[in-house]
Amino acid sequence: MAIFRRVRFVQSVLLLCAALSGFAGAKETDSLFQLSLDDLMAMEVDIASNQKATLRQQPGTVTLLSSSYIEQSGARYLSDLLRQVPGFWVGTDTIGTFSVSFRGIWGMEAKILLMIDGIEQNELAFGSLVLGNRYPVANIQSVEIIRGPGSARYGGQAALAVISVTTKGQQSQGGEIHLYSDLGKGGNHRGLLAFSYADNQRVEGNNLHLGVSASVATGDYSDKDWLALDGYGFSLKDNSDSRPVNLNLNLQYQGWQARMQYDRFEQQDRMLFGDAGLFFSPNLRYTEPNTLSFEHLAVSLDKKWHTNQNLSWEAGISHVSQRPWNSRGQYGHDLVRELSRSRADISALYQFSELSSLLFGATAYREQARVSESYLFDADSRFDGQPDTDNTNLALFAQYQRDLGWAALTLAGRYEDDGAVGSKFVPRLALTRHWKKWHTKLVYNEAFKSPQFDTLASAANAGNEISGTETTSAWELEAGYQLDQNLAFTANLFWMKVEDYIGFNPQTASNTTLGDIATYGLETQAQWQSEHLAMTISHSYFTLGQNSIGDIGVAIDEDAVLGIPNQMFKLNLSYFTDLRSSFNLSAQQIFGRYACVEDLNFICGVPQKLGHESLIDLFYRFNPGRWSLSAGLSNVLDETQYWVQPYRGGQSPIQGQGRRLMLETTQSND
Q1: What gap in Å lies between CA 200 and CA 24, rounded to an integer?
Q2: What does each C-alpha distance from 334 to 236, 453, 640 come to in angstroms?
Q3: To 5 degrees, how large is the angle CA 267–CA 268–CA 271?
Q4: Alpha carbons 88 and 81: distance in angstroms, whole number
Q5: pTM for this structure?
């Protein structure tokens, strides 16, 4: 589309201007060196609550990754940050893409919702959350995560978790230019250039806020060899280049906010569905990489206002255009699809008193999809004999919160009527108690997955029509204790069940309703904060309570699923010598998991158990003022790490990067 070409031109101009221009304004900081544990515990978010509240007061298990945490971590992309959060792990899916699992369940397709500056990012064809070397952290101000279902508030793509990203141009003030360069063995190189700027100006006595962030990057996601299930292989070096391009603009004035987002993610691929091209005419192996691309353009306009001191409103409209899972490849293996969503939202918050409030609202949207070219299926008959289709969705939601004295009560519910799969109602109940150094939470959630266009079409065309939603129910019990001014502990017991799980069936090579799965387990976390040392250490464990889905199970281990580790230890440690310099150590230890490694039929064969993996990154940061210089080592032990497909989909494990040198420089103006 011409609009996408124009956006690419505008983005190039902005990046050039950023590199050549000076900055104005002051950079806001919340340096871990300057914060006490009490300060960290007092940070407020509203991802789960009606109004801003601390993490201990949130009616759910919530994680906050602040700007200082992100800067110190040495992470390059959003997936690097999620790898450090309890319950999450990174895996691979079809065509060499990457996403995350949560608490033992694969979250790629419409199960984990990602929002950036309030706009949903999941692609509209399958609802997939495609990560990998995408969404650079250089432009991320903070990340808020609901570690648990969020459908009651956020709808049908939040069945397992909700990830909300705020970019630097949205709230912060000042300007930065980041330049990253990662050097691996054998000359493998990854580079990134990022720019952000935000400023407030007085216009007729009111603040006008302008924010912009942009980035471009390139580099192979791996420098290792890849072996298919039938033994065929090639080097991923020069065959796995990832090229994310990103632009965010926002303008805020007198309660109005206008946003524009553009994201294009291209990645080389020679694996396809693990067959390297054999499955499709002319049934030959690829000898050169194809280009897989995802394109997302969104515009939105929101307005906030107060009717009186007790009642506030927010209304907005948005339009999203996407071109996901498009490809240009060898042997004419091309695919072109376009989708769009036009959406209207309205919500209100009524404050009955200091002790109680009600958040309620409605959402309506219309989606359209069209496939104009495909080598995988007949484009002219993809959607019930047609090349295009549409769908409408209407939702009503409400959340009531009240302080009962002995506990804070949260009652929520969402009714959603979808033109493709019908109506659904899901409730939510939470009791939270914060008393001196203790806090406790008891949470019950129901959630659902609304299958998207191509999920439904894939199933229907294979004779496995999906007629309803996938549903999730979950219980959580959390307890936390702040021992003193430096140390706090948190433990979370969870039980989660997914019924009518929608996934990939290797026998029909299509999506279908597969069965039910339930997991339960424990996540614990300790946090230490002192003048010179900030440390977070966590342990995650899950096992299976039920699994009727053979395509994700392991016959010889009834407590395991394919590709996802049952146990994980994670550590993030920052040591500050002074305000100018710091050392960071980030480490993850995962215990053995099962993977499909050999099968001439490209399904799985007998899963094999992989060994433990210990991934350690070291990072040094020197920041004397308006510039900073950082250097580090990623995968210090040069450990063999694997990204594993967590179901029988034909994809063999992909080896990650070996040891590499990380270099970074940042220029800012305070």
Answers
A1: 10
A2: 21, 19, 34
A3: 120
A4: 10
A5: 0.94
